[in-house]
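Following up on my earlier message about KG4. Here are the inputs again, as you asked, copied directly from the submission form:
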Amino acid sequence: MKILAIESSCDETAAAVTEGRRVLSSVVASQVEEHKLYGGVVPEIASRRHAEAITGVCRRAVEEAGCALAGIDAVAVTHAPGLIGALLVGVNFAKGLALRLDKPLIPVHHLRSHIAANYIVHPDLQPPFLCLLVSGGNSLIVEALDYVRFRVVGRTRDDAAGECFDKSARAMGMPYPGGVHLDKTAETGDPTAYSLPRPAVEGSPYDFSFSGLKTAVVNLIHNAEQKGGRVNVPDLSAAVRQRVCDMLLENTLLAARTLSYKTVVLAGGVSANSELRRRMADACEQAGYALYYPPLSLCGDNAAMVGAQAYYEYAAGHTAGQGLNAAATMPIDEVSF
Ligand code: KG4
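Thanks, got it. Here's what our run produced:
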């Protein structure tokens, strides 16, 4: 079954043709360079660029897969969560295409597709497992009970881990999206040079809180500047990265132990973080857990992961009609369409 999958939830317009977990083509048109000018994603610009790019991106995905549009068996699309104007471009395009081809329309939850990025490269991976899902807008610890049933056991009470990385990086003068620059800069820094808070959520051991840490970093930088000095950027980057990783690691490992999971999966843009991968690999090896994470090329937004998840959603009977709408927010465990 060949699925044409479409992703437009944030600042990448992407399309892919997939067959089960196999990727026949994957095209990503990134808008990052344009949003860089503003230090973050401008929703109105994102919607316009999606509208301009979507036809060409889908055409290329079909061509590169070596099949004509007539060879597509279903159309899948990210319908939530994300920037509403951006999502609507993908959803309306997918609805039009499904109608024109007279093929099923499969709505896919963005965060579920981030988890499914792992299925593409790990043929042996199957639920149940525990997943740390960390991106620019979300930080969750999720039980994947099967391919389409999830239970959230931990979540951020304020900012996402990616937001904490991006805002800390921006305050240190790094370009958007800062997470990857902060990660690289941290490699040469000394994490003990700065003492940063380690926020915890009382009574909810799996939940996260990152906003206090973000504020502490911004204050540290401003205080140094007010005294006519400057922070040591590699050292502060290393300290922030270590703190964020402390929280992600400790909560995930506690949840795995308490809930008796032997398989841990990382997903989302922040799963590209080199310290997170290193430390999680060491900790899982020591605990005897199997650890899976996507290659860097599949950590960010793409449509191949949408196609991989769509395969399981379709098998579960999750298809939508022409009434499908986009939603800016939607919990991973309560998907509706
Ligand atoms: O999953 P994603 O591509 O988009 C969302 O759906 O949010 O995640 C983007 C986030 C950004 O905050 C970006 O800075 C962060 O992932 N990120 C990283 C790294 N690479 C990307 N954060 C830390 N270390 C990295 N190496």
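One observation from looking it over: The first strand starts at residue 2 and ends at 7. Hope that helps, and feel free to reply on this thread.
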